[in-house]
Design goal:
The complex is a heterodimer.
Chain A lengths: L2 H6 L4 H23 L1 H26 L5 E10 L10 E9 L1 H24 L6 H20 L3 H19 L6 H34 L6 H4 L8 H8 L3 H18 L8 H4 L5 H10 L4 H12 L4 H24 L3 H21 L3 H29 L10 H4 L1 H15 L5 H16 L7 H26 L17 H16 L7 H4 L16 H22 L12 H10 L4 H42 L11 H31 L2
Antiparallel strand pairs in A: 1-2
Helix pairs in contact in A: 2-3, 2-5, 3-4, 3-5, 4-5, 4-12, 4-16, 4-21, 5-6, 6-7, 7-10, 10-13, 10-14, 12-16, 13-15, 13-16, 14-15, 14-20, 15-16, 15-19, 15-20, 16-18, 16-19, 16-21, 18-20, 18-21, 20-23
Chain B lengths: L3 H18 L4 H22 L15 E11 L2 E9 L1 H20 L7 H20 L3 H22 L4 H30 L6 H9 L3 H16 L10 H8 L2 H24 L3 H27 L4 H22 L2 H32 L15 H14 L7 H16 L4 H21 L16 H19 L2 H7 L9
Antiparallel strand pairs in B: 1-2
Helix pairs in contact in B: 1-2, 1-4, 2-3, 2-4, 3-4, 3-10, 3-13, 3-17, 3-18, 4-5, 4-10, 5-6, 5-10, 6-7, 6-8, 6-9, 8-10, 8-11, 9-12, 10-12, 10-13, 11-12, 11-16, 12-13, 12-15, 12-16, 13-14, 13-15, 13-17, 14-16, 14-17
The chains are: A mainly alpha, B mainly alpha.
Chain lengths: 661, 489
């Protein structure tokens, strides 16, 4: 027993603190923004939230594997004999367990660093009260999601982080592209959300209709009540239903974590401020899909069919997104594609049954990817463009930023000893070990392995283009300089985490946040060969990037070659964006217009036809149609009163006579 | 015991009469009357801890019951019979909220203010009566009493084509009313009950044979369905809304559409459960058709009011779907969604009215980027849109979740249709916000400022309710389930 056990019960403070910041900044923000207090209020509250988050994680480490679950009833509806015999009880609760403690650590640490960074980065923007209020609300929703103790609550916060993301992508709402990207992000993830909802319905229905569900009647639908064996048992021979539910969870996760084929929104989400990209679209919200799959795999269970589908989606997305990063000229979009690709690795790992390994990569990725975004933000802040081909030589004027980006790049590509190396090799090694029993994973494993090469290539291409060479390729760029301390401090802290966070799992206490992960298999000897292969691929990718782009070189493709055609295909994002725009905008709108036509001229047209018919029949009554509303009203009232009188007095008499009593 | 429900009725009646007579002071009288009514309803809500339960023979009892003989002949009794349960109480609460909000919103009505405020009160009086009446004739009296003031509100204060719209509204709903009345009387006569009283009809009506129940249910479904409105009998709604003044639209969408749904629950589903059982597939089909059609047609609309009107058809389709399920979960969700839609559509119609006053148009494509100029109005547009598309922590979400969960239990994968339509609903609201609120400024007159404070106040009240009941839906759910729902299949 120690004082930290107390901290364990403080988790509810985290969303509360950021919610208070949301209210203070949101309500009083207009006045505060002018004095620049709004930002500091948000920073201060997120710092407090981070302290609590760290204490909760320490509390969890001191009592490995423990959890606390407390909840209140949100809605309770009594049962019907026919459906939901035990009634429907929906709870809002807080579940602190190892993995939610780990996620809290990620969300609060990155959240605080990003808010601190924003003080300088967003300094020149207007609408800052809105910005800090929305980011605080996001932190509330995200920590609420992490602490959810049942699927409905999870969905509730899932939607709230989605709407915060919507508003923050559209932060520069005067820009049509930003407004459009915000809408696109919301709608594409919404497709996943409705599938997620159907999955929830299935789990609920199975729980509710099997009267013996553990804890259903007493405590509603909680993760801690559920157990994968129970669900499989309750379904009996009905595993197809469980498979469908699992696939629906995959659908939801694919929307949120931008997995194929719902990946299109994330690159466009780069319309938001870079800080938002770092926090929401790299480190936390987009990882919520992976977290969902992890939670479902732990508490509800996937069938083998589900697992294969998840492995396929994750493995394919890993490679598919990386190819698009290879050619992109926009520094933020390169990192965005990289995020999709890395999320693919996590989905791949969770699907293959290595939930903790997937979460391990989520943990390391949050830091090095946030670092890459914030370093890119530092560059954008200094030179005012996102076009890599205009930049160049920035390592001379911005040495700290160049070093930070390099550290992020090394960690992302899996340079031995960095965070990304441990977690990525853990994924590859773990899945490799199962290939004997699951040969169907082979193609996706190979894609994931090949992506190691692409990753090293595209991220160092970006580094060489931005920081290599003698000076900017576009001479009109302003003279770059390093940012102030509020931006530098987060870069330094995240650099340290990008190097060291991966090694934390060697500490058994920390590893208890990822129960059962063990020491990374990279060091179990058998996988040394695989590690050598992957490090070799990193070296090849780096070498190729250097030979094409190093030292200020710009690699030119002649236009007629097949390679140029491939590049055009990649720059057009395999035409997915165009295709979805066609379906989403052109086709749907055409259907809607056609429906509107039918509405006006067929359905209502029939009605008007009847009107004209009756108007003709009532020609004799034309004299009463004076066109004065009060006259009509008099008829209406008179008719009605007459009718009622008739009803009240005449009808009973008539009935009495006819019915004969 | 105090005749509570009659006191409430008397409050509305007295306020209506005083308002008609008070000339230029009408708005003050109307506000005082509606606030008194709201306070009384809140007191009633606070005292409503336990529903009266089932009486002898499984007949549901009602709280604060009052029965006075009205017409009595040898074999037939018509009573003034009123009473409430959780379902009607929640809808009475909705009536009180919308009455106050409408009076506040139209504070500066200059065209015949005494008449305007009096008719607004009269409309709410009729709705209140429908929700508490427990006798066929009394129910019908109030039902028709709603139509007259609404006819005037549209026909006198409405837009350019108000006469056409008012008549269309009246003809549609009146034809439906007659079918409804005939069906209700048929229920009474076929069951051979000695009175038109709901409680005395209850047992005999439920004992009717399957064929009789099916035919009677069909009649009632048509009668109540036009009011919902259900596809294809819905075209009166967009016309009525477009021409109606803002206050008229608020009452029309917020309250009048609920009358049909309430009537279906109380007078059809409760009395004729076997009929519902046989006709459920038809109701599912009509409901899904309304859900799909309302949402898809809304996507093509350029007039803000028409868009909200079609979105109402979509939401009332979900209400119908949940009623058709008939389980305790389904009907609870349906009533919750009726309340939610009442508040949300009221806010959206007020927003449409304010946009119209402020920018001189409701054409979504004609104005753009209004957020920097009218941040408060834009925020209210966002709250209304997000609530209507079912964002959690706002009022519609728990209701739609419950409705579709209940539907999954009966129609299995067909529930994917309404689920996927949720994406279309999100799409037209998102597209609306993109065009009207965001982007570069477009079509904004030079001297634009925020809507007047009373309009903002009315809309803020509704927005606050949307958040309050969205975060704590059990405030309503606890009341709703305190009703015969407890005994449902």
């Amino acid at each position: 027993m120690s004082g930290f056990d107390v901290a364990f019960g403080w988790a509810w403070l985290i969303p509360t603190l950021t919610a208070v910041a949301f209210v203070i900044v949101g309500v009083g923000g207009r006045r505060m923004a002018r004095l620049e207090w709004g930002g500091w209020v948000a920073v201060a509250f997120s710092f407090a939230a981070m302290v609590v988050g760290i204490l909760v994680a320490i509390g969890e480490m001191l009592a490995p594997g423990s959890y606390t679950d407390s909840s209140v009833t949100w809605i309770s509806i009594p049962g019907s004999p026919g459906t939901f015999p035990n009634g429907v009880q929906l709870d809002i609760g807080i579940l602190v367990d190892p993995i939610s403690a780990l996620m809290l650590l990620v969300v609060t640490v990155v959240g605080f660093l990003v808010l601190l960074y924003s003080i300088e980065y967003m300094h020149h923007d207007s609408g800052l009260a809105r910005y800090y209020a929305e980011l605080s609300l996001f932190l509330t929703a995200m920590t609420g999601l992490v602490l959810s103790d049942n699927l409905l609550e999870f969905f509730l916060f899932w939607e709230l982080v989605g709407v915060c993301s919507y508003f923050l992508i559209g932060f520069y709402y005067e820009k049509p592209s930003a407004a459009s990207a915000a809408k696109e992000a919301f709608l594409v993830t919404r497709v996943g959300d409705v599938l997620f909802l159907l999955g929830i319905f299935i789990y609920f229905a199975v729980y509710a209709t099997s009267g013996s569900a553990p804890g259903w009647a007493a405590g509603g639908f909680k993760f801690t009540n559920g157990s994968a064996p129970f669900l499989a048992g309750a379904m009996g021979g009905n595993t197809p239903l469980l498979t469908v539910a699992g696939l629906m969870m995959l659908g939801g996760a694919a929307g949120k974590s931008a997995q194929f084929p719902l990946h299109v929104w994330l690159p466009d989400a780069m319309e938001g401020p870079t800080t938002v990209s770092a926090l929401i679209h790299a480190a936390t919200m987009v990882a919520a899909g992976v977290y969902l799959l992890a939670v479902v795999s732990l508490f509800l269970g996937f069938t083998p069919t589900d697992q294969l589908a998840i492995v396929a989606v994750g493995g394919f997305t890993t490679f598919f997104a990386a190819t698009m990063a290879v050619v992109n000229p926009d520094i933020k979009r390169v990192i965005a594609y990289s995020t999709i690709s890395q999320l693919g690795y996590m989905v791949f790992a969770v699907g293959a049954g290595f939930t903790m390994v997937g979460l391990y990569h989520l943990f390391t990725h949050a830091f090095f990817k946030a670092l890459l975004f914030l370093a890119a933000g530092s560059v954008i802040h200094a030179v005012g463009t996102q076009d890599l081909f205009k930049m160049g030589g920035l390592r001379k004027t911005m040495p700290l930023t160049a070093a930070a980006f390099a550290i992020g790049a090394l960690s992302l590509s899996g340079f031995p000893g960095s965070s990304g190396f441990f977690s990525k090799d853990d994924i590859l090694g773990s899945v490799y070990a199962t290939l004997g029993t699951h040969p169907q994973y082979w193609p996706f494993f190979l894609l994931a392995l090949l992506t190691v090469f692409l990753t090293a290539y595209y991220i160092f291409r970006a580094w060489f283009l931005a920081f290599g060479g003698d000076g900017p390729r576009d001479a009109t760029l302003p003279h770059a300089h390093e940012p102030g301390w509020t931006m530098r401090l987060p870069l330094v802290v995240l650099s340290a985490l990008a190097i060291g966070a991966g090694a934390l799992v060697f500490d058994p206490a920390f590893a208890s946040l990822l129960p059962g992960i063990g020491v990374p298999p990279t060091f179990r000897g058998a996988d040394l060969a695989l590690s050598a292969v992957s490090v070799g691929l990193v070296a090849c990718g780096f070498g190729l990037a250097y030979s094409f782009w190093g030292g200020g070189r710009v690699f030119e493709l002649s236009e007629s070659t097949w390679a140029a055609r491939v590049r055009a295909l990649l720059l057009h994002r395999y035409y997915f964006k165009a295709g979805y725009d066609w379906i989403g905008l052109r086709a749907t709108y055409t259907v809607a217009r056609a429906a509107d036509f039918v509405e006006r001229y067929v359905i209502d047209g029939t009605v008007r036809g009847f009107e004209r018919l009756f108007a003709g029949l009532s020609d004799g009554l034309r004299r009463v149609q004076t066109g004065v509303v009060s006259d009509y009203a008099a008829y209406v009232v008179g008719g009605l009163v007459g009718f009622l009188l008739l009803l009240v007095f005449l009808a009973p008499w008539l009935l009495q006579t006819v019915g004969g009593g | 015991m105090l005749p509570v429900l009659s006191i409430l009725l008397a409050t509305l009646l007295a306020s209506t009469l005083l308002t008609f007579l008070s000339g230029r002071w009408a708005r003050y009288v109307a506000l005082a009357g509606s606030v008194v009514f709201l306070v009384e309803v809140l007191l009633l809500l606070a005292s409503f801890t336990q529903w009266a339960g089932f009486g002898a023979g499984g007949v549901p009892q009602y709280n604060d019951p009052e029965t006075y003989p009205w017409i009595s002949i040898s074999w037939l009794t018509v009573n003034y019979a009123v009473g409430i349960d959780g379902i009607s109480l929640v809808l009475v609460l909705l009536t009180a909220f919308l009455l106050v909000a409408t009076v506040v919103y139209s504070w500066r009505e200059e065209k015949e203010p005494a008449l305007w405020f009096g008719l607004v009160l009269l409309t709410c009086l009729g709705c209140y009566g429908v929700f508490v009446a427990l006798d066929i004739l009394l129910f019908f009296l109030f039902w028709e009493a709603v139509l007259i003031p609404m006819f005037f509100l549209i026909g006198y204060w409405g837009g350019p084509r108000r006469r056409y719209a008012a008549l269309k509204f009246f003809v549609y709903t009146h034809v439906a009313s007659i079918v409804m009345l005939v069906s209700l009387l048929a229920v009474a006569f076929y069951s051979g009950a000695a009175s038109f009283d709901f409680t005395s009809l209850y047992g005999p009506a439920r004992a009717l044979g399957a064929t009789t129940q099916v035919f009677l249910f069909l009649g009632l479904f048509f009668g109540f369905g036009v009011k919902f409105p259900i596809v294809p009998f819905h075209t009166w709604l967009p016309d009525a809304h477009v021409e109606a003044p803002t206050g008229g639209s608020v009452l029309l969408a917020g309250l009048l559409l609920k009358l049909g749904a309430y009537g279906l629950i109380r007078w059809a589903v409760e009395l004729l459960p076997t009929g519902l059982g046989h006709l459920a597939p038809l109701l599912y089909a009509v409901a899904i058709a309304s859900i799909v059609w309302g949402s898809v047609v809304a996507l093509a609309q350029r007039d803000l009011k028409r868009l909200v009107a079609y979105s109402s058809i979509n939401h009332m389709g979900i209400v119908l779907l949940a009623i058709a399920v008939g389980s305790s979960l389904g009907v609870t969700a349906a009533v919750l969604l009726m309340f939610a839609h009442g508040i949300v559509s009221a806010l959206l119609f007020m927003v449409s009215g304010s946009v119209h006053h402020t920018f001189g148009t409701r054409d979504i494509n004609a104005i753009g980027g209004i957020t920097p100029r009218t941040p408060a109005l834009s925020t209210l547009v966002m709250v209304g849109s997000l609530a209507s598309l079912g964002l959690p922590a706002l009022i519609s979400f728990p209701a739609e979740f419950g409705a579709l969960l209940a539907a999954w239990d009966r129609i299995s994968y067909w529930v994917l249709l309404p689920l996927l339509i949720l994406v279309v609903t999100a799409a037209f609201y998102m597209w609306l916000m993109q065009r009207m609120l965001f982007g570069p400024p477009k079509g904004i007159p030079a001297n634009v400022h925020e809507p007047p404070s009373f309009e903002l106040a009315a809309m803020s009240i509704l927005a606050a309710l949307i958040v309050l009941y969205g975060v704590v839906p059990s405030l309503l759910v606890q009341v709703i389930v305190n009703s015969p729902i407890q005994g449902w299949p």
